[in-house]
Amino acid sequence: MHYYRYSNAEVSCWYKYLLFSYNIVFWLAGVVFLGVGLWAWSEKGVLSDLTKVTRLHGIDPVVLVLMVGVVMFTLGFAGCVGALRENICLLKFFCGAIVLIFFLELAVAVLAFLFQDWVRDRFREFFESNIRSYRDDIDLQNLIDSLQKANQCCGAYGPEDWDLNVYFNCSGASYSREKCGVPFSCCVPDPAQKVVNTQCGYDVRIQLKSKWDESIFTKGCIQALEGWLPRNIYIVAGVFIAISLLQIFGIFLARTLISDIEAVKAGHHF
């Protein structure tokens, strides 16, 4: 193992370059997230008119991608430069941010377990808000379609939730061709069809409710997700533990390197 030699202490090259390697992965991932997010916004014309983001009543998935990218890019940059330059300020910023994120994740997990009814109500409000904006943003539309297809569900608590959307509303004031229908992602797939029928949900809610389950999913997505979690609890727990261990490992490397640098400076000025 190589060291930088000073008068009374030494900084381990092992910890230094291991922390650099640890952070370069996050920095590159942050660059990718930012690049994908900015490309998606440019395709939708948001970069030329940023007010489109504020006019969307639901959530734009690209915003989440960009937020994750900014956090990963910033922390990766601070960790890389802090390790290479042996900069205590940047290393403390990196370490403190990782500790904060770790405890925030832990707090969210505990609160979600203790206040399940509150979380369920917030998720319902969130899902219904995005149902209203289903046709306003292509990325949001794809996200909802993917969620409904993957979980074989429709709406927050059922197909009737699509009355919240102006295009699928069953009221007499609506002249949309999709009136009293549901998105194609609510439809029960037909194995014989090679091409997705995007009109399979048209007029389906005009029929008697007893016949809905013949052509569309009638279970709400909140119920579907509540059923999915117990079946996959070990996978969820494994992912949470893996992320936590990575964060703890990063904190350990940063704190060790900070201690080495402080010891070197203390010995140098003694």
TrEMBL record:
It holds the Pfam family Tetraspanin. The keyword Transmembrane applies. PROSITE patterns: TM4_1 (PS00421). GO terms for cellular component: cell surface; tetraspanin-enriched microdomain. One of its GO terms (biological process) is positive regulation of Notch signaling pathway. Its main location: membrane. Keywords: Cell membrane, Disulfide bond, Glycoprotein, Membrane, Transmembrane, Transmembrane helix. It is a multi-pass membrane protein. It comes from the Eukaryota. It is found in: Cell membrane; Membrane. One of its GO terms (molecular function) is enzyme binding. The chain crosses the membrane at residues 20-41, 62-84, 90-115, 233-254. Disulfide bonds join C153-C186, C154-C170. Belongs to the tetraspanin (TM4SF) family. This is Tetraspanin.
